[in-house]
């Protein structure tokens, strides 16, 4: 559980960003509530303000949610007991709400990042027209399946929208830039009129943003598709979910995730509009531009922390690096062999991503550690002898054991120092 003061200060920042900064930016769009309700976004000469107006709605709803969560979480300092069903139930309910908000905000942020490569009015309009077209087709199909008819007035309107889309394709947009479709090169297809528009998946869009996103955006969304969209499992019924994985502190992490997504969305909206207002918006933009932390975290995914032969800490075990590999996205991973008894006896080696390991000792340093164990008078003589009298084929094995022993001793020493 975080310190109450620190948690409340974080919540106040998120609320300021999500409500105050968003409201100031909304007012700068020169679009009032009456216009927003009466005029569909695609009809504006520049649909971007209306599109971002809708985005800011979601940010402010998230801000209201954070306000509610922070109040509820500050009302009690009681930790759930394993036998207390009601406490766990209420905590999981809050986590479900957070997952819903985070999923929605992640979708919005990914779309905004994708729009940074097509930040012209006609692409926003095309996106909105295709969404409308798809919704209409599915509504007609629903009418036919359940009621046995298709409304002719609706079909007539669909023909008009088809004409608008085709005219835009011929004169104003490059269909190869349609990131919002499953196949970007596709112009209007006749099957769309019966089966709907094949929009790109969140996974496709997430992969696309890896070359476009700012470091703080990747940090807020997640370092892979499953990290970015994993919360979708929390908003569906999952009977296989194990309550043994329940951690009462996750509800605090959920608040931070939603808050950081709101922050990232505000910054991206500023960039799409090329507008930084005085006041809160200028303050958070300055904070963003001067913060090198997210860039460092993202860079670490692609940096080689260890070389073959080095020793690393991986999920609580000391291991030796056997292979270093890079994925097609440039992310570094390691095949390691366990130095200590592995978690599962028959699995002697495994793979870990760069962010899952920590360098314990280089190969050269490990040799120094072994020498220390062979000569250190503070180490019992029988142990020194075991490290001295080794055969060459046992050298690598004992080298690993030496590193593990020193590492574990250091942990014990550090714990004693903290307790004194």
What is the total tally of β strands? Answer: 5
Order of helices and strands: HHHHHHHHHHHHHEEEEEHHH
What number of domains? Answer: 3
**Beta-strand percentage range:** 5-15%
The helix count comes to 16
- What order do the strands of the largest sheet run in, or round the barrel if closed? 4-3-2-1-5
Q: On the 0-100 scale, what is the average pLDDT?
A: 88
Radius of gyration: 28 Å
Which stretches of 5+ consecutive residues score pLDDT under 50? Answer: none
Envelope shape: elongated
> Structural class per helix/strand content?
alpha+beta
Helix content bin: 55-70%
Q: N- to C-terminal separation?
A: 24 Å
Largest sheet: 5 strands, antiparallel
Question: Can you describe this structure?
Answer:
The structure is a single chain. The chain is of the alpha+beta class. Helices cover 59% and strands 7% of the residues. The protein folds into three domains: 4-116 and 212-293, no CATH class; 121-206, no CATH class; 311-419, no CATH class. The chain contains 16 helices and five strands. It has a five-stranded antiparallel sheet with strand order 4-3-2-1-5. The longest helix is centred in the N-terminal third of the chain and has 31 residues, at 85-115.
Short description:
Helix content is 59%, strand content 7%. It has 420 residues and is of the alpha+beta class.
List keywords for this structure.
single chain, alpha+beta, 3 domains, 16 helices, elongated
Per-chain topology:
Elements: H1 4-27, H2 33-38, H3 48-74, H4 85-115, H5 121-147, H6 152-171, H7 192-195, H8 202-209, H9 215-221, H10 225-229, H11 250-273, H12 280-290, H13 293-300, E1 311-314, E2 317-326, E3 332-338, E4 349-353, E5 357-361, H14 363-375, H15 381-388, H16 395-419
Antiparallel strand pairs: 1-2, 1-5, 2-3, 3-4
């Amino acid at each position: 559980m975080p310190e109450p003061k620190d948690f409340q200060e974080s919540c106040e920042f998120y609320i300021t960003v999500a409500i105050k900064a968003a409201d100031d930016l909304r007012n700068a769009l020169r679009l009032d509530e009456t216009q927003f309700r009466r005029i569909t976004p695609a009809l504006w000469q520049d649909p971007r303000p209306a599109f971002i107006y809708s985005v800011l709605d979601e940010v402010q709803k998230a801000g209201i949610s954070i306000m509610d969560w922070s109040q509820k979480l500050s009302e009690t300092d009681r930790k759930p007991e394993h036998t207390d069903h009601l406490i766990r139930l209420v905590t999981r309910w809050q986590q479900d709400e957070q997952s819903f908000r985070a999923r929605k905000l992640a979708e919005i942020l990914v779309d905004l990042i994708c729009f940074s490569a097509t930040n012209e009015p006609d692409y926003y309009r095309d996106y909105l027209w295709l969404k409308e077209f798809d919704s209409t087709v599915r509504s007609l199909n629903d009418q036919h399946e359940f009621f046995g008819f298709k409304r002719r007035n609706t079909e007539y309107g669909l023909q008009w929208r088809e004409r608008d889309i085709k005219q835009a394709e011929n004169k104003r947009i490059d269909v190869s830039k349609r990131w919002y479709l499953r196949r970007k090169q596709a112009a209007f297809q006749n099957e769309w009129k019966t089966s709907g528009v094949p929009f790109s998946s969140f996974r496709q869009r997430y992969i696309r943003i890896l070359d476009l996103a700012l470091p703080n955006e990747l940090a807020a969304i997640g370092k892979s598709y499953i990290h970015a969209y994993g919360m979708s499992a929390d908003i569906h019924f999952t009977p296989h979910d194990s309550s043994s994985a329940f951690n009462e502190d996750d509800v605090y992490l959920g608040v931070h995730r939603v808050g950081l997504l709101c922050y990232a969305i505000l910054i991206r909206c500023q960039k799409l509009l090329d507008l930084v207002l005085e006041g809160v918006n200028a303050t958070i933009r300055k904070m963003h531009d001067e913060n090198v932390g997210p860039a460092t975290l993202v860079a670490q995914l692609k940096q080689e922390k260890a070389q073959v032969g080095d020793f690393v800490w991986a999920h609580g075990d000391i291991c030796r690096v056997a292979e270093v590999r890079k994925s097609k996205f440039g992310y570094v991973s390691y095949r390691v062999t366990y130095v200590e008894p592995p978690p599962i006896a028959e699995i002697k080696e495994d793979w870990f991503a760069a962010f899952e390991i920590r360098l314990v000792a280089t190969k050269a340093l490990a040799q120094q550690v072994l020498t220390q164990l062979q000569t250190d008078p503070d180490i019992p003589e029988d142990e020194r002898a075991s490290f001295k009298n080794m055969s060459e084929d046992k050298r690598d094995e004992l080298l690993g054991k030496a590193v593990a022993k020193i590492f574990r001793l250091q942990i014990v020493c550090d714990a004693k120092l903290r307790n004194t």
